[in-house]
Each structure stands twice: as structure tokens, then as C-alpha cells.
Amino acid sequence: xxxxxxxxxxxxxxxxxxxxxxxxxxxxxxxxxxxxxxxxxxxxxxxxxxxxxxxxxxxxxxxxxxxxxxxxxxxxxxxxxxxxxxxxxxxxxxxxxxxxxxxxxxxxxxxxxxxxxxxxxxxxxxxxxxxxxxxxxxxxxxxxxxxxxxxxxxxxxxxxxxxxxxxxxxxxxxxxxxxxxxxxxxxxxxxxxxxxxxxxxxxxxxxxxxxxxxxxxxxxxxxxxxxxxxxxxxxxxxxxxxxxxxxxxxxxxxxxxxxxxxxxxxxxxxxxxxxxxxxxxxxxxxxxxxxxxxxxxxxxxxxxxxxxxxxxxxxxxxxxxxxxxxxxxxxxxxxxxxxxxxxxxxxxxxxxxxxxxxxxxxxxxxxxxxxxxxxxxxxxxxxxxxxxxxxxxxxxxxxxxxxxxxxxxxxxxxxxxxxxxxxxxxxxxxxxxxxxxxxxxxxxxxxxxxxxxxxxxxxxxxxxxxxxxxxxxxxxxxxxxxxxxxxxxxxxxxxxxxxxxxxxxxxxxxxxxxxxxxxxxxxxxxxxxxxxxxxxxxxxxxxxxxxxxxxxxxxxxxxxxxxxxxxxxxxxxxxxxxxxxxxxxxxxxxxxxxxxxxxxxxxxxxxxxxxxxxxxxxxxxxxxxxxxxxxxxxxxxxxxxxxxxxxxxxxxxxxxxxxxxxxxxxxxxxxxxxxxxxxxxxxxxxxxxxxxxxxxxxxxxxxxxxxxxxxxxxxxxxxxxxxxxxxxxxxxxxxxxxxxxxxxxxxxxxxxxxxxxxxxxxxxxxxxxxxxxxxxxxxxxxxxxxxxxxxxxxxxxxxxxxxxxxxxxxxxxxxxxxxxxxxxxxxxxxxxxxxxxxxxxxxxxxxxxxxxxxxxxxxxxxxxxxxxxxxxxxxxxxxxxxxxxxxxxxxxxxxxxxxxxxxxxxxxxxxxxxxxxxxxxxxxxxxxxxxx
Length: 932
Hints:
By secondary structure, this protein is an alpha/beta fold. It has 35 helices and 25 strands. The chain has 2 domains: 121-136 and 172-518 and 914-921, Glycogen Phosphorylase B (Rossmann fold, 3-Layer(aba) Sandwich); 524-839, 3-Layer(aba) Sandwich (Rossmann fold). 44% of the residues lie in helices and 14% in strands. Helix 14 packs across helix 15 and helix 24 (563-588) packs across helix 34. The longest helix is centred in the N-terminal third of the chain and has 29 residues, at 92-120. It starts with 23 loop residues before the first helix and ends in a 32-residue tail after the last strand.
């Protein structure tokens, strides 16, 4: 595709903090004249402030140009001044850093202007709070969203630097692990693209979860993920944005004397939208000690104890999901969740008071806080504490504010996945918050008894406190009671959530519960990761607007009978398979044959309910059939499995070991050849997913019915024309509705039958499994140490692997048969991509914005130079980047451009240069964060 001219960031930047344009005399005057006026204006006068603003604007009145010379100049400047390398002698990693800093400069311009504009318009903002954000690499995503990849590619090529080589120099940020974090990252991309005013909030992990390697015996090995070892050019650490977070201590009545203070330091990442200038912020908190050293202990020579508090504070945000098999691990998790929650709320309230000069009662008019799962649920108790203890509101007033601010997304159907905290632990770490929770619970339960007249059994199920030998704080109940809306993430999940997980709550407050089916950003998961297919789609749709308004994908249906187009589609898939095969050979030494083998992929977190167990048993069955010569109709396959197991999850780690040892046997058996290969791809992350997903022919979405809330990998695969082998679970069902059930290989027990089967009605274990178990126990795949896996099936079979095994084998035979009809297969693949538009995260976010948050788009105006130097704003209607949320459902109809002189915007508070690092000690403005 020829490079496109970039015209979006040309012209004036917004002028004052109100985003008004510069006066004509400023816009047209030379910089020297503006400078002289500043020098001749008396200090500390209104005219002086205006002259200073004019001079500052004149110095940086244009966005950084996007021509080749400017890109090259920016690149070599960062090589020398930021990386401290010679312009004539630098390595590939330094080149990556310089290119990244060059792009970040442009993001910071847009980010600052976006934030100034949001403040000037006094808009309500979304605050999306998540314990993880699995963002993936930044460089290519930023270049593509900014429409700058072509100019950077050409500019750096003239300096003998390949932009493609720089992409692989970037470390995947260790800020997330699984679907929860990747969903949050997709949502941030959509929030920016839709011009919605928003911030993301989470934690800045030093080492992520862990880096997964596979040991000589096939076991998962966990090593620290040193992703920050060489710095991170995308992080902007705001050392002036610091909040104290308190733990432990004791309460005298309602007065809390904390025993430990840890500072939360802001680290900002810029999130650019696609085809818009709007650029949002992702603010992640890192921990630092309130005092570097204990001076008393240091003075008396107790150096070890003197640094203990410093190390403890810094360790708080070291790793994602500390192992909670120990009491210390549980305590660390609770502290992490509160640390994130408290710092985020302090920041939100600071913005309310400092930028909007608004009273705390107006918080719901300026803030919509989305709790992504139960990890940030403690925000409900923390906001109540702030309102009651610091703002001196009544408890009832405080609760009413909470329920106007918070909304909660439930991501599970399994009771064990709903967070609960031991009351004793909670009281130890957050004594005042437990008091608040008790008071909230008492108020709520009294209302249940006297207003709703519910019985004791219902009262017990709705209580925030779970009674019993070991009392527990139910965080999901706290989130439901403290929120105005609770949503599930797929149609079946939302219904099951109301029927089982929150049955009594749903009967009490039926209108509080909604469904918001998940989605994924098609920018990263199709347009960016599969550029050849993206170009093929653009040929049919006519432009790249399909990456924004996915309705255009349906035009692909007109090509189902176009033999040449179908051939091109198949060629793209083969090229992606070959690329992955090359990577596997280079990194693992196993040679695949993409021309012959069907690529069968299952990549996701390793868990019993996701049933990698069922998959590996199916692979063993296929292997034994090959040895027996039963290969009639069998399609050669390469089975690829990847994902991490939690360090303390014994079953999952045994399963990984079994998969690797089965792979070792199969891949070294000369009798098998290309008929079957099995690979376990270590350290599965976003970058690896971007290579695997476009290459997959089929993908396994085989969770036990009723256990997967939604799943999003199914959507990513389906967008990339990989057909789903799936159970009647999560979003699989809605995908089948969208693309046609005939284009999904459905199998397995349905959710309405699961409970009966678990109770013994109609339960059966496939007789085919006996020879598989015998092969495992005989040592065919190494030492017999897999009884925990075999017993889980031959015993209770809670996840129905034995029950569904025959159906799984039968559906795989249908896959083999279907794949061998190449023409029909390609039509299914195109049909999948063409009808997946509903599963764009843009659609999901537009529904959240309209039906939950009540927040509207606020696109950054494009200030350009009009006639006679007059600054005007170019409002673009109907083009990407300026449409309303509602227009996402309409097909792009062209554009209408209108030039208007910018009216004076509402006055926004001026930034102060005063402030300190402790908001509790510096007056009503809070002092610290004077940055946006």
C-alpha cells in the first residue's frame, strides 16, 4: 500500500488552557516581537501573564512536523542527547530507544492538549480501574494509530535503520497476564479512538508476573521478568504526583492511627486513538517509602533494619499476583489492591477540587469509576472513609455518592474466583475500612429486613460479611452494593450471573444488572498484527475505515465466490503460518510443514476449567491412532499450546509438564513424521500472540460450559479467519450467532445439563480414555507422576473432560474432513472475518458510555491557520476521530468539513506551580499533583 500523507497534526496547537485560539496579532507576529513585548511588560501584572502565554505558545505553536527531515532530526537528536550515543555509532537497541522517544514526543503533545481540552470543557470523565493492563509493545501500535509508520519507515531507512528490526527490540511490558489485562488494554484503545474522556488506573509492576521457561524435565520454571532492566521509553514518571497510602495501625473510635505509610508515585503511559488526535493517559502507581530510611535505627548502626521499611515499600508493586498460598502472599495482595484503590481515589478527588474547583458532592458529575473485577472493590470502602472521615459527610450521604460513581464488571461464574478476605487479615491491614464495611453492611441489612422484608436466608447470602468458623469479607457483594450498575461480559454469562452468582441481588435490584458483551480492538488484533490480510480487506472495503467502523467488513461476503480473491486469502494464511513455523524452528528447533499441516492452537492461561487437559488427551489419542495405523481421513496437524500457570497451581503445572513430555515423544518419533507435531510455546505474551493468531487454522475454545465468562481470544482468532472449535460457553455462542453456527465446530455438554451430570445423572467416562491413561501410567511419556490429572477425570470429573471426550474426538474428525475441502474451508474463513464486526471493543465501549457511564465524546479541535493568519478550528463531521458514539453503528458516509472561529471556551483553573508531595499536609488543594 502506498504511504499516505499525514495531515492531522499540521497547524496550530490549542492556545490557552481554555483551548481558545491565539489572537490574530499573536498568530501573525514574529517570535522576536512577542519576546520583546514580554520583556517590556511589568512583572506580576495580568498583561505579563498574557504576554508570557503568548510567548510560550509562539515557541511551540505547531505540532512537531511529520516530514522525513523532521523525523530524522528528532531521531538523531534522541540518539545523542537522550541515549548519550554518538550519531555515528549506535546499536539497534539505542536506535529503538531513539525512535520511541521521538514518537513519544508527539504523543505527549497530543496528550497534553487533550487533557487541557477535557478540563476546559468541564466534562465528566471515565476512570477505568484494573489490577492489570496487558498492553503489549507500544512502538508499532503508536505509529499505526498516529498514521506515521510509513514516514518513519522511509525516514529511518535513509539512515540504514530498519523500523521492523526496531520493533523486536521492545520488551513486552510486564503489566498483565491474561484476558482481564488484555481486555483492559483493548478498552483503553477504544476509549481513545472514540474520543471519550477517560483515564486508566492500575499498578506499575517492576517484574510483572514472571517469565516462563521450560525446564529439561518439561516443567514450568518461573524467573523474574526484568522488563525494565534497560529502561522504558514509554513511561513518564511523575515524581511530583505522589499520594500517601496508609496501612495497619489502630482505631480509637472512628479515628484511625495508621501504622505504615507508603507513597504512590504516578507513572503515565500515553494511549493514542486511531484516526484521531485524542490521546489518553494510563496512570500506573509504583510504591516508594514515605521515608527513605528510619533515621533512629540508622543513627544507632542498625543498618539492616533501617532499610527494611524501604525495601518493603518498594516490594509492594514488584510482582503481579503474589502467590497467595501463604498468609504473607494474601496480605501482599490485599495491600496491592488497596494501594491502587486509595491512590486512584485521591487522584480523582484532587482533579475534582484542583481543576474544576468543585465541591465533593459534585463528584458523580465529573467521575464515572469502573471497577474491573473485584480487585478494586475496596474503593467503595475507601471512598466512604474519605467522605465520612475527611469530608465530614453523613454515612447516608456518602453512600449515595458512592452508588452514583461506581459501576462493577463481574468476570467470573465460579464462586471460588470471587474474592473474599479473612476478617482478621482485613482488620490487621485496614482496621478503619473494616469498621466502614460493618457500618455499611448493618445499614444495608436493616434496609433488607424492614424495607424489603426478606428472610434470614436471603439476608445471609446478600451480606458483605460471610459468617462461619472463619468470617470473610465478600468483595463481590461490596462491589454490587456500592455500585449503580453491575454487568456481565457475554449474554450467557450475564444470565447465569443473575441466576446463580448474584441471584438474590438480581431479584432485589433487577434493573442494576446489564450485559456488555466483550470485544477486542481490531486495530491491534487485525489491522496491526495481520497487515497482509488487512490490505486484502481494504481492497474490498475501499479504505481503512473498517478498522474503526467494522460494519464495512460485511462487504467481504461479496467475494465468497471470487476464486482469485479466495486464493489470495489462502495465500495470506499460508504466509502467516510460514512466518510462525520459521520462528518455531529458530527458537525451538522443531520443523513444521505449513503447506501440509493444519495449525491447531490453544493459547490461554492454564486452568482446569479451560480444559487444556481435554486437548492433550485428544493429542495422545491421535498419536496412538497413528501408531496403530488408523489414519484414514486424518489431516496432518501441528498442535500448538501456550499459556502460564500460576506459580502455586499444582495441577496446572503438572499439566504443562505432561504436555511437554508428550511433545518430546511425538516430535522425536520417526513413525509420525508430519502427521502430528506438538509444541508448547513458552512465555506466551502479546507479541507472541500477534504472531500465533494470524497463523492459526483452528483455535480451541473448549472450556466446560458455564465456566468461561466470555473469552476474547476466540474473537481475535475469528477476526483473523481462524475457525473455532468450541463448547457452548461464553462468547462462543454469540460468535456462532453472528457468523453462523455452521462455521463454528461446536461440541460438548450444554450448560443446562452440567449440574445434573455432576450430580450423577447421565454421567459417563469415555472408554477410549482407558488406553490413554494406560499409556501415561506405563511411562510412555516419562516417569508416571500424573495421577492428579487422571484422578480428576476418573473421579468426580468436575470439569467434564471424561464426559465430553468422545464428542471432542468426533468434532476433530469433522475438522479434518472440512479442512480437506479447501474451497469450502476458505469460504468459512472469510465468512468468519466478515461477520465479526459486533465484537469490536468500540461497540462494547460505546454501550458502556451510553448505558452505564453517561459520558460523551469530546474530540480535540484541530486548530489551523485560516485566512489572514486568523486561527480557526476545523470541526470534522462523519470522519474517523470525530464521530459520536452512536454513529459507530452507522456505516461511514463520507465527510463534511466546516471551518469556524473557535468560540471562547469556559474558563478552566490555571495550573499552579506550588505544591508538595504530601497531599494530607498541604491545604485544601492537596498540593501534590499539579500535572494532569
